[in-house]
């Protein structure tokens, strides 16, 4: 009797590349991130091993209750094509003028990575990182 071997076909997933940077008082760091379409930006950034000390980011797990996954889309905001939800807009109203920039600030838990994000520039505010 012949054994039949079944090989699982890899599922094709699209990869999107964008730039993430952190600007703090001492320096500016940036890196290119490849992300799988469909994941939330919060999950992609949290899982990215090149981004160190991102301990204060996404503490509520995407429930829009902690405001810690706030990012600034410095380039490509209009291309993303995903408008903030009513709940996200409510979240923005709780942020101070320093933390919210209209047409730039988004909550990473509410953004699904898509091909439209290709080439975007995303800033993670310094407050999301462990403060030593």
Automatic annotation (TrEMBL):
GO terms for biological process: P450-containing electron transport chain. Keywords: 2Fe-2S, Iron, Iron-sulfur, Metal-binding. Its cofactor is [2Fe-2S] cluster. GO terms for cellular component: mitochondrion. It comes from the Eukaryota. SUPFAM superfamilies: 2Fe-2S ferredoxin-like. Residues 14-128 form the 2Fe-2S ferredoxin-type domain. One of its GO terms (molecular function) is electron transfer activity. PANTHER family: FERREDOXIN-2, MITOCHONDRIAL, FERREDOXIN/ADRENODOXIN. Belongs to the adrenodoxin/putidaredoxin family. This is 2Fe-2S ferredoxin-type domain-containing protein.
